[in-house]
Structure formats: C-alpha cells, structure tokens
Amino acid sequence: MNGSEPKLSKQVELMVTDYNQHEKKSFVRKMFSDIAPDYDHLNRIISFNLDFSWRKKSTENLEYSNLVLDLCAGTGDMASALFSHKNFKGKIILCDFSYEMLVLARKKLQNYGEKAQIYLVCGDVEKLPFKAEIFDGMMLGFSLRNLESQADFYSETKRVLQKGGTASFLEIAHPENILFSRVFYLYFYKWVPFISQFFTKRKYAYKYLPDSLKIFPKQKEVVKFIKTFDFEEVTYHNVMGGMAAVYKLVK
User: Fold this and answer.
1) Contact 150/222 with Cβ under 8 angstroms?
2) Which of 29-33, 94-98, 175-179, 230-234 is the least confident region?
3) Quick check: 162 pLDDT over 90?
4) Burial of 178 by CB count in 10 Å (0-12 exposed, 13-18 middle, 19+ buried)?
5) pTM of this structure
6) What's the whole-number mean pLDDT along residues 158-163?
C-alpha cells in the first residue's frame, strides 16, 4: 500500500456537513489503513496513556456479557479492555473495515491466550453481516465521529442487539465546564496535531481528528438523537470532565 494521502473534495477537507457520504467512507477506510502501524503508539502519547483506562471504564457495562460485538474494532483496544475484566468470560466478534487494523488486533489479543475467544470480521458497521438479536453486548471506541450515516449505524445496532442487551460507546466529547473546555481546546486542537507530526508521516490523519470533533454534536444532542431509535434506555456519563463520554444504550 502506498503512503499517499487520500484525495478529498474541498467540502470534505473542510469537514462541512454536505459532503458526498460515500467519499467520507472511502477516506476514513484509507486513513485507518494508513495509520495502523502508528495507531496504538500515538494514542498513548496524545492521551497521556489514559485512553486504555477510559476504554476499560466504558466496558464495565459488558463484563457479564456472553457474546459482544466490537464495532470499528481497530487494533483491538476495546476488546483488550474487556478481556482485562476478570469476570468477562464471553466471546468477542471484532468488526472493522480496515483489514490492516484487524491483523494488528489479532496479534495483540494473542497475549490473552485461551481467554481471548475472538472472531474477526472485515465489514461495514453500518451494514452488519449478522442476524438480528444475536449479541447481548456491543461496544465501540472513538469512532462515532467517523461514521458515514449515524442513522444507519444506530438502526443496525438496535437490529443485532438482543432485547435487554447493552451497547457501550466511548467517544471524544465536548467538556461542559467553560474553563476546562478552554484547556481542552488548546490540547485537542493545537497540541494533538502538533505533537503527532513527530511520530507519524500521516499528518493528515491527526488533522482530521480535531476537525471531526468540530462538527460532532454535544453529549446531550447525541443522546437526544439516539433516543429516536426507541431504545429502552439511553444515557451518558462524562470521563475526565467531558474530554470523553460513554454512551450506554439498552434495548
């Protein structure tokens, strides 16, 4: 695979909302395949090594699940966080449209030995290749912003989730405290793009990261939208003052 940056129309480059939907999906797939080798290392750096603890916190709701679908599974960090819970003895299906990411996930999860009952699926989370109501748990880490169609995603989430099942989605968020939001702005919109350039040649990907949050709704708006899909329960709680948020959905 060559290292060229995926081409975008001016609309997508500016991250406005009227871009061609299929163009975004192609861009995101190419981007994550490009940054796969650097992904874990850079995540630790830009989150000050806090991202794994956030993932572990967000998977607490799934500790007693039997079959969990890991959406936009990437390199397997969410699966790794769930396997780190001593009471989790279930199976995880990792679904991602980046083959390169899934290769790294399989290698990483081998560290959990026989406990790591995993299945890898290279597929589209907005058009899941699974029967209805088969998962009692679902999870996702830092990928809601990257979706092409939020509506398709939540429709599919509800379709494959069992009645009474829980989905737990972790995402970068908007701090609700004014003072903290200013600190977060400097960190996320200035420091992250600056520091990432020293650790990866894929600079465009870490410019996309803060740009994608600019157009992503605030936490209460996200919850309001998800509720239109008639889940039994939709709540959120902030992590570190709203640097991130965990959205809990119960069918």
Assistant:
1) no
2) 29-33
3) yes
4) exposed
5) 0.87
6) 98
- pLDDT value at residue 96: 95
Could you tell me the strand order of the sheet in which 91-96 lies?
118-122, 91-96, 67-71, 135-141, 161-172, 244-250, 233-239
Residue pair 61/129 in contact (Cβ under 8 Å)? The answer is: no
Neighbours of 175 (CB within 10 A): 22
pLDDT for 22 equals 54
d(CA 26, CA 225): 25
What CATH number does the domain located at 10-250 have?
A: 3.40.50.150
What is the token pair recorded at 247? 């959205």
Q: How many residues does the chain have?
A: 251
Task: Return the structure tokens found at 207.
Answer: 């410019």
Phi/psi of residue 22, nearest 5 degrees: -70, -25
SS3 category, 197: coil
* Cβ 206 vs Cβ 42: under 8 Å: yes
For the packed helices 51-58 and 21-46, what is the interaxial angle rounded to 10 degrees? 110
- CB within 8 A of 180, min separation 6: which ones? 241, 242
